[in-house]
Amino acid sequence: MKICCIGAGYVGGPTMAMIALKAPDIEVNVVDMNTARIAAWNSDTMPIYEPGLEDVVKQRRGKNLFFSTDVHGGIQKADIIFVAVNTPTKTYGVGAGRAADLRYIESVARTIAEVATTSKIIVEKSTIPVKTAETIKTILAANTRGLKFSVLSNPEFLAEGTAVADLINPDRVLIGGERTPEGEVAIKALADVYAHWVPRDRIITTNLWSSELSKLVANAFLAQRISSINAISALCEATGADVDEVANAIGKDSRIGSKFLKASVGFGGSCFQKDILNLVYLCQQFGLPEVAAYWEHVVQVNDYQKRRFAAKIVGALFNTVADKKIAVLGFAFKKDTNDTRESAAINVVRDLLAEQAKVVVYDPKVPAHEIVADTLGKGNSNLRLSVAKTAAEACEGAHAVAILTEWDEFKTLDYKKIYDGMMKPAFLFDGRNIVNLDELKAIGFRVSGIGK
User: Fold this and answer.
1) Half-sphere exposure of residue 160, counting CA atoms within 13 Å on the CB side?
2) From its phi and psi, is residue 240 left (phi > 0), alpha (psi between -120 and 50) or beta?
């Protein structure tokens, strides 16, 4: 069997590397038009950071795992084609700000139709709206020469920072297909690939539409829990309650559980906001305004939490941060990844810059040029924004420190030394509730956590 994956990003790269590792009898080709990205996959410096990923890639690269810009060649020789291209939120036209932009999905479908010389199984790996498979099937049927294509939905449920562990031991593998003889054959073929290492009882099969919708709903439910506990964190601060104690108490209820009840400055990443807004748009399109409004408020609470955190910094520093140095520790949206998409740090830094603060950012994995581009836009600069090479450098002479990513190294910094080098009074704002506030108070910091 030969597999081709179109798209060498956060989904395609790790997923195909794991298939190559666990199924050495399958040839896996990852193709992408981005030459720099492919070059990175073929080098000693991976284009994305995930713990354990580099080892997996190096074990199989050049054996049964290949990275190439030869999209046409990959399509022609593949039995199964995974589509893992970007599906960003539209920024223009109908559905702007909510609907998924499917231009890349459609382009891939047209390319497959143009290039393929044999029948294929097409697997949707990108996060897409319900009924996208219908679009792909229509394009393929209208542009091919009697070839037969089966379209499957196989959404990814990876968490960035733990992608390799999630791939090795997934909660479930979801495969949606048509309930026809041809569809069942295609479903079995894909299930057999995963069965090289995933127990059969974890491989769930559904119809196409249930599978497509499940990905959006899963992310919406997870984001909803974060926004729920973040909304309560504001109430905790107003009443003197401790949000971690509240979360622990309610998390002991087996009907609720403890996961995703960690209060923070807000959720980020490529999926949660995009998928919820996509769900909102679908509900609006199907005439369900009350349901749309419900899910949209999850995003609104998340935006509120980020604004609230920045406002708290300004308020604590005597209602002005103009010309004051603020050290921001962490820019990635979560630890153990270099992904900054929708990171809460972007909004907080922008808000502080709007208040005329001097902001110095440090992140152990995010390059300086990306921090500047994400905050200001590509090609723009602001003398008030700079990037440090270490946490100590960022904090030197600062009026306040704001922790925005829960990197482990921030838990063990020499905060006594940091305090000694800061302006007084020295403030620390923990946007991830990862440091011991009482210990920092004893050093001399004026401290503030989320929901405390």
Assistant:
1) 24
2) left
**CA distance linking residue 138 with residue 180, whole number of Å:** 17
Quickly list H helices, 78-170: 103-115, 132-143, 163-168
Three-class DSSP category at 208: helix
Nearest CA to 355 out of 387, 301, 298, 402 is that of 402
Out of 4, 5, 236, 271, pick the active-site residue.
Answer: 271
pLDDT for the residue 98? 87
pTM of the model: 0.91
Q: Alpha-carbon distance 149 to 187, whole Å? A: 12
Give CA torsion, residues 340, 342, 348, 349, to 10 deg: 40
Chain CA centroid to CA 443, Å: 36
Backbone angles phi, psi at 401, to 5 degrees: -120, 135
- Nearest of 340, 344, 333, 316 to residue 401 by alpha carbon: 316
pLDDT tens digits, one per residue of 195-231:
999 999 999 999 999 999 999 999 999 999 999 999 9
**Alpha-carbon gap, residue 128 to 174, rounded angstroms:** 14
Cis omega (within 30 of 0) on the bond before 51?
no
| Known active-site residue 271 | yes
What single-letter DSSP state applies at residue 201?
A: G
Residue for token pair 């599978």 = 211
Q: Is 24 helix (H, G, I), strand (E, B) or coil?
A: coil
